Amino acid sequence: MPSQSVLVIGGGLAGLSSAIALAEAGFRVQLLEKRPHLGGRATSYTLPDGSEVDNCQHVTLGCCTNLADFYRRLGASGKIRFYDRLYFADAEGRRSEIQASPLPPPLHMAPSFLLFDALTLADKRSIAEAMLAIARSGGNPPRADGASMLDWLHAMQQTPGAIERFWRVVLVSALDEELARTDARYGIEVFWKGFLSNARGYRIGIPSVPLADLYEGCRKEIVARGGDLRMRCGVREIRVRNERFTAAVLDDGSEVEADACIAAVPHDVLLEQLPGAMAETGGPLEGLRHIRTSPITSVHFWFDRTVMTEPFLTLLDHTTQWIFNKTRLSAGSETNGGSTRPTEHREGVEAGDVSRTEAADSEGQYLQLVISASYDLVPRSRLEIIELCRCELADVLPATRDAKVLKATVIKEVNATFSPEPEVDRWRPEQVTSIPNLFLAGDWTQTGWPSTMEGAVRSGYLAAEAVLSRYGQATSLLQPDLSPEGLSKFWAKQSRARG
Ligand SMILES: Cc1cc2nc3c(=O)[nH]c(=O)nc-3n(C[C@H](O)[C@H](O)[C@H](O)COP(=O)(O)OP(=O)(O)OC[C@H]3O[C@@H](n4cnc5c(N)ncnc54)[C@H](O)[C@@H]3O)c2cc1C
Fold this sequence. Notes:
Layout: E1 5-9, H1 13-24, E2 28-32, E3 44-46, E4 52-54, E5 60-61, H2 65-74, E6 80-83, E7 86-89, E8 95-98, H3 110-114, H4 121-136, H5 149-155, H6 160-175, H7 184-196, E9 204-207, H8 216-224, E10 228-230, E11 235-241, E12 244-250, E13 255-257, E14 260-263, H9 267-273, H10 276-279, E15 293-303, E16 312-315, E17 322-325, H11 326-329, E18 349-354, E19 365-372, H12 382-396, E20 405-418, E21 438-440, H13 453-470, H14 486-498
Parallel strand pairs: 1-2, 1-14, 2-10, 7-16, 14-21
Antiparallel strand pairs: 3-4, 5-9, 6-9, 7-8, 11-12, 12-13, 15-19, 15-20, 16-17, 17-19, 18-20
Helix pairs in contact: 1-13, 2-13, 4-6, 5-7
The structure holds flavin-adenine dinucleotide.
């Protein structure tokens, strides 16, 4: 068993996943988190009135194999419910559904796609051709290198309807960026891994408990293995002497020493903590200064009655992209009841309550609306945003027209994810650094994945693998992708053989 100590700075998914993997491997792990709760950008907290909300609905997909492994380690897999059917509503509220058929990939979605009302025949034909190009190349179609997703879609002669009502709908919410600012490789990967290579890749997993509840198992596991987690414990400096990490200097001036350190904080925070020479022009981490972020806005409505039957709904032709029926999604789960967590105050996050009148009765419903790449909403007032969303709800959920809004809240995450701009990967650093006992984790490090929980966990596992390797325990923690099936398996093999 190793006797080394590892300091993990940051209790988001990157920090937690590296910490639990190293604790399980026998390291003495100490995790320092600035905020009062775990989970970082994927967390929940208590509003001043006592209701517990996720900072934003987080969903996983069947293709997120490392996140699934992480939840398994925490004992939280049972708190994620998977849904096989996706529901869509157009401007008039007309519904379409998509789900897998027994056909082998990549044809498993074809029957419900053919019946999808919101697209014309010409839209469907152009989409089918682009999908075929992705599938036949094993996820590596031509003309994608260095291109934006929009450029690639134009090169694939996609109709305006296909771009607006299909590609944009899926990709802006998956990648939190407009198509013109998205690297085509990221967009194509979403379809290859999620919809084309394996019949389970597209299944949507949604936590049935508040996000912060998922991480309790992580805390217990680390403590049970002799580790320690300190909350409200901000690090202001990562000290490096003679090319070695020596200590983390806390906001109160005290120091924490360890044999090795994994810095799992947001990339802009890391720039402030590192010795200047590492992050300045010409330094090994200079690229971090070029990574831009994009915003996500969530709008929370508490109605006095039932207004929605589906568990969730994807909207076409609206500013609102998703509606989650939180009451239904958490039905039958054990939650904390809502008032034990500290109230949230965070930089870059704005939250506010309006229109509070009376408590919801047992028939009331809590809905959460999500808008990714919400650049246009950032400067707008909460009241304006609530009004806009209320009108859009009336289009697709007629029962909201007569229902009373008991309470509404807007949460703007201004720096929600890093922007998957064309060629952003050249700015993303590896998990190992030029300092042999200093490692990096975070969704922004090199993982091949966009800014997602899966990307964060991959980075945590890669950082933990690097620590293990440094101390002579070369072990693989990273989980393989879902294997391609059916024709996709055949085409992926052919594409690999072609090199
Ligand atoms: C609104 C929103 C919606 C999203 N929706 C989805 C989704 O549906 N599906 C999905 O897969 N992904 C989603 N994401 C992305 C996902 O949340 C992130 O990719 C992931 O959580 C990033 O994890 P991380 O550990 O890399 O970073 P973070 O979660 O940012 O963790 C960094 C941690 O470091 C801590 N820290 C900061 N400064 C210090 C300091 N000085 N000292 C100590 N600790 C410090 C922070 O408090 C934080 O806990 C969403 C993100 C947002 C914001």
